[in-house]
Amino acid sequence: MLISLEWLKEFVDWPETPAALAERLTGAGLTAAGWSGSAQEPVLELELTSNRPDCLSHWGVAREVAALARTALKPPAGAGQAGQPTDPAGITVTIESAETCARYCLRVLDLPSGAAARALPEIMRARLLAMGQAPIHLLPDLSNYTLFEIGQPTHVFDADTLRGNQLHVRWARPGETLITLDEVERQLNPGDLVIADAERPVALAGVIGGLETAITPATRKIAIESAWFEPQVVRRSARRHGIRTEAGYRFERGADPQAAAWAADLLVSRAVALAGAHWAGGTDCIAREWQAPTIRLRAEFLRRLLGLAPPSDAVENILQRLGFQLEAQAGASWMVQPPSWRADVKIEADLAEEVARLWGYEHFPSRLPAFQGVVTESEPARLASKTREKLRGRGYSEAISLSFAGAAEGERYAPGRKPVKMMNPLSEEEAWLRTTLLPSMLRLLLVNQNRDLTSARLFEIGKIYWREAKAGFPATEAWRLSLGSFGEVGGWNDRREYGFYELKGDIELLLAGFDLPGLEWRPASAGWCHPGRAAEIWANQAQLGTAGQLHPELAEELKFRRPPFLAELDLQQLLIAGGNQLRFSPPSRFPAAWRDFSFLFDDRVSWQSIQTALNGLRQPGWQGASLLELFRGGGIPAGQRSLLLRASWQLPDRTLREDEVQRAADELRATLAGLGGQQR
What CA–CA distance (Å, rounded) separates 612 from 629? Predict the structure, then answer.
């Protein structure tokens, strides 16, 4: 925000030099970024945060200076001189949505011939030029001057161009268009709030006016608009149409709801004085009364938050200088009502900030607050950290990628998930939020390959987003873990090509740290997977993810020189499942008994089903079974394979008898036979 110090002097006197004033404002939170203009008329540039729209004018900054310097404010020239609205002058105003427009003030004036073509007085023109505004002609310039002076946007219509002598504040209708003042025809959206006459929109509310109702040198009757619009509505329309205006900049941050009538009357008084205009009537349409919130402020809260509590009389004086209304309460507290221009003050901490910045930060001691308690890491955070640690221990490097993707990528790698489109994408190729991490991982692997790396192992923890199939349901987001690898593994004397079983082993080691009952691997059906070299991971009858080799056709399309292997796991489900409790059992002093079994199985019987059946055995000392050998060909019929299994039993307190081992072995044979196995 640019502030002319000569203009500022019309409202407030300060004893400091301009440099000292800039330093004082910076110390109070209005950062002085630099100077421009001439030595006779210096212009100060302030860097304002988005929560201080009240300082986007000379009057607003004058309020701050008056509070800092303990001096009085002088009202703008011409304030309070306009007549009161008693006659709507034949133009009716209707607010169709009280939530979007709380108040709409209309003032109607008749102009003498040629008055609209006049120019501003030279001092006003110079001030507008200092603000970066090129003067046009009298009435639009007066509207701009009022905006930079008191911060309230106004708009001036040529009243004779308004059809039906009506103005409606309403939502745009399907198919409506508006040619704005920048001579661009814009297709309106039903989410746009417009000002419309009896037949068509004439302005985009709070953003920009329409060209067809603009003031011209021939204008003889004007209608002055001054209103309060809901910030979010203005912000959405401005961004949707890509329009940046001084009015929209203030409305979308929150204008003063009580300043609309004041700004309209101030503009009327100047139009009367400078253009010879005649009062023709006006109206104030109030759809929703503004109510000041009441906030309790406690001296104890100030002490706890700031480190010390300023004296009670200093607290009261500071808040009153800033325009707050307050009433002292028992127990060193106050009930405080912020002024209408301070919509950013909503809670007790906001009041404490106001007290601190005017009391002076230099009065507060430089010491750390006392800390009581213990910093603890939540269980999900601990498990996520452990997951990263395990993967790094397996040779993986963590990667971070953007959440943007193309619609085709999501459909290819996560069909069925409805993507979320961004309103302002960086590019049309990545206009959607990703529904899977796999495309991001593939791009990262390609970057490593194209940098002439012979192998790479990466993992990423990130969010995916999608919309539920139900109409109107909000977007859903969830944490996912993706793995990606290509190249070789092993030591210098044991190098081998990375394959599916290396990926499976990494995932099994990772999942061993979570409480996942019934963990199993099932054949995968995802379209991106290589047939026969991929699997779905399930636990407790819920799918945790998919892992496998990328389909050769996709790998060729992406120009991979070595087959890439991918996995995506539902990290959210893993964190909900929680960590696996470590249990230690001392090794038995007694010898184990083991037996080897050779069985012939049909290829349709998976090793997973054999493992599940054997793990379900409830035998004394059962330790499990491992696969020693798999054999095909020779005398083995086509479509079958021979498995050599080794089963073991061991008790912690004694040696198993031969008859116990024999009964257990017979039960194992029966279990395998029940799966269709034939003992050889």
Answer: 19
Asked whether the beta carbons of 84 and 197 are under 8 A apart, the reply is no
CA gap 401, 410 in Å, rounded: 15
Strand partners, 321: none
Instruction: Name the CATH superfamily, with its identifier, for domain 379-577.
Output: Bira Bifunctional Protein; Domain 2 (3.30.930.10)
Angle at 71 between CA 65 and CA 72, to 5 degrees: 100
Contacts of 11 (CB under 8 A, 6+ apart): 58, 59, 62, 66, 73, 74, 75, 76
How many separate helices (H) and strands (E) can be counted in the chain? 19, 33
Mean pLDDT of the chain: 90
| Closest alpha carbon to 463 in 511, 420, 506 | 420
Structure tokens at 559: 């120009």
* DSSP bridge partners of 460: 482
Could you tell me where the DSSP H helices lie in 512-551?
A: none
Q: What type of residue sits at position 294?
A: T
Domain 593-679 has CATH 3.30.300.20: no
**Fold (CATH) for 295-362:** Phenylalanyl-tRNA Synthetase; Chain B, domain 1 (3.30.56)
What's the CA angle centered on 579, arms 575 and 582, to 5 degrees? 170
- Give the three-state DSSP class for 560: coil
Spelled out in words, what is the top-level CATH class assigned to the domain 2-69?
A: alpha beta
Question: What does the block give as tokens for 27?
Answer: 């110390």
For the four alpha carbons of 411, 414, 417 and 423, in that order, the dihedral sign comes to negative
Work out the end-to-end distance of the chain between its first and last CA atoms, rounded to an integer number of angstroms. Answer: 89
Tokens of 469: 């199939």
Q: Give the pLDDT of residue 87.
A: 62
Q: Of 590, 428, 631, 612, give the one whose Cα is nearest residue 521.
A: 612
- Domain ranges (residues) in the chain: 2-69, 92-286, 295-362, 379-577, 593-679
Among 415, 505, 410, CA closest to 457: 505
- Which of 461, 475, 446, 674 lies closest to 567, judged by CA? 461
Mean pLDDT across 16-45:
85
The DSSP annotation for 320-382 comes to: HHTT-EEEEETTTEEEEE--TT-TT--SHHHHHHHHHHHH-GGGS---PPP--S-----HHHH
What 3-state DSSP class applies to 315? helix
Question: Using CA atoms, how far apart are residues 601 and 510, in angstroms rounded to an integer?
Answer: 31
The answer to whether 440 touches 462, Cβ cutoff 8 Å, is yes
Q: Calculate Rg over the CA atoms of the chain.
A: 38
User: What is the longest distance spanned by two Cα atoms in the chain?
Assistant: 121
- Gap between the Cα atoms of 677 and 665, Å rounded: 15
**Interval 164-202: pLDDT, tens:** 999 999 999 999 999 999 999 999 999 999 999 999 999
CA 114 – CA 216 distance, rounded (Å) = 10
Q: Which fold has domain 92-286?
A: Phenylalanyl-tRNA Synthetase; Chain B, domain 3 (3.50.40)
DSSP state of 626: E
Q: In which order are the strands placed within the sheet that holds 92-95? A: 92-95, 166-171, 193-196, 201-204, 208-209
Query: What is the pLDDT confidence band of residue 473, given thresholds at 50, 70 and 90?
Result: low
At residue 638, the 3 state secondary structure works out as coil
- Reported confidence tier of residue 89, pLDDT bands at 50, 70, 90: low
Averaged pLDDT, 651-657: 92
Q: Provide the whole-model pTM.
A: 0.62
